[in-house]
Amino acid sequence: MTTATTQGPAEEFRRLSDGDAELRAHGAYFSCTYLLDMERHAFLVRMHRGRVEDLVVDPEPLTAYDFAIRAGAETWREFCTPVPKPMYHGIWAASFQRDMRLEGDLLVLMQNLRCLTRQLELLRLTGPLG
Amino acid sequence: MGTASRISPVTGHYVTIDVEDVQYKVFYLENGQGQPLVCQHTAGCHNHQWRGLLEDEEITANHRVIAYDLARHGKSDPPLNKEWWKEEYKLTADHYVAFITAFCDALGLEDPIFMGSSFGGNVALQLALRHPDRFKAVIPVEGADYSPGFYLDWWQHPHANAAQVCASGVWDLMAPQSPDADRWATWFYYSQGSEAFKGDLYFYSVDHDLRGRLGEIDGERCPVVMLTGEYDYLTTPADGARTAEQIRGAEFIEMKEIGHFPMSENYPRFAGYLKQALRRIEERTAS
Fold first, then answer.
1. pLDDT band, very low/low/confident/very high, at A38 (cuts 50, 70, 90)
2. Could you tell me the residue range of the domain that residue B270 belongs to?
3. For B215-244, what is each residue's pLDDT tens digit?
4. B161–A111 CB contact, under 8 Å
5. What's the CA gap between B48 and B25, in Å, rounded?
6. Between B159, B169, B230, which is nearest A86 by CB?
7. Of B157, B164, B169, the CB nearest to A92
8. Closest CA to B140 of B55, B197, B204, B76
9. Is residue A13 part of a domain?
10. CATH number of domain containing B96
């Protein structure tokens, strides 16, 4: 269920993403749909040419996406801080050393890795989305 | 300020060497005089990673800093006299060690200190094992006895932009505290080396395996001072400490707020630890 506490950070994430200089400069081909599974809530991010087309909180069960990034709430809490501690400082680090899992069509993730990496760093400003 | 004052004292040279009957034209940068300090860049990269060290006047005052490009990297071409394009590039420990010793021989270096990072850190351990009399000491940076997990098809997948996958794929190896400009310079270098990256990682994650053999390294004869950054998720400080513990006489220093490319992502921070390592080597080798 979408709640006020999840809508605030999610909307902030969308605002920061759409206004980000790097994504505006390099996002012309950044089009894909991915899921951030933060344990308590999941967030579907649908990107189109570098802009957030949709950001759905707790999407319905059969909603399709290209890939998912899943981790426990504690990992996301550390990940989404201004200066993350070692091993929580990116999706590679947290996948190699913590409980983060990259699932689905990882080719799409790799094709969009530059912009995705930048976009996920914006979580350092918003904090966990929910 | 005149134009001349902005010319760097760092100079570039080429030297042609023979390694296992194959000829290579090797590019290297150097500056300083005194104790040779030979520097190996990380996998899929080139010698600009050592740009800060090469211009560090405190170190170059009494060290001849030499940073070469391994064949197929930077300005060092693939083999000159071999149809290399008909083979898959997979770097082996045997070849890597032979290449480095041939390069040091070609420059006539006496008792050089060898320092390398990542796959250069791992080969520093190989050099200490195989040629303890050829090197005064080694400084494995971000090295370990074994470092699996990075020999991945993604580095060369034809459906993805290999330059960006390699460059952004190593982004997390750097610490968030490192300056943006230096992290992006390192990212840029990585966008240039994708064709060699995977073959380098064959050595890093597959062929290099010193588990059970670290006891054969004589760290008294060839001092080993290991440096590892706390943000390195591939060869973690725990991996570095575990490796050093098994080498007779080896020392281990954990570096705070820095990652897997310390000399390139944040040289001023790395420099403090490097100077500590060089002091330890000087103390231990003074006779």
1. very high
2. 9-276
3. 999 999 999 999 999 999 999 999 999 999
4. yes
5. 18
6. B230
7. B169
8. B204
9. yes
10. 3.40.50.1820
